[in-house]
Amino acid sequence: MKKKTRVKYTAAFKTKVALAAVREEDTIPTLSKRFGVHASQINTWKRVFLENAERAFDPVTDADESGSAEREEELLRKVGELTMERDFLSKGLGRRG
Predict the structure, then answer these.
(1) By the 8 A CB rule, do 7 and 41 touch?
(2) CA distances from 91 to 14, 78, 79, 85 (A)
(3) What is the DSSP string of 13-55?
(4) For residue range 39-49, what is the model confidence (pLDDT) as tens digits?
(5) Host domain of residue 83
(6) pTM of the entire structure?
(7) Are 17 and 53 found together in one domain?
(8) 13: nearest Cα among 38, 45, 50, 55
């Protein structure tokens, strides 16, 4: 028996399918055939898309994302500093041994 592997769809693909379902361009079974995705999966993506649509215009979310990017830069800078310190100290210890 052939084993099926799961397909991981990109966020862009999910959005494209969900938007087509929201616009009601075609019926869900037709969209299912066109995109090669089960009808229940399309309905799930449509529901999730509609539930999270308000986040697109939420100013708090935008601030959190920019703060997140700043935090990420800060952490990367710190990792670089610690890496340099570790390398410096390991070289120093290696010469004495």
Answers:
(1) no
(2) 50, 20, 18, 10
(3) HHHHHHHHHHHTSS-HHHHHHHHT--HHHHHHHHHHHHHTGGG
(4) 999 999 999 99
(5) 58-97
(6) 0.57
(7) yes
(8) 45
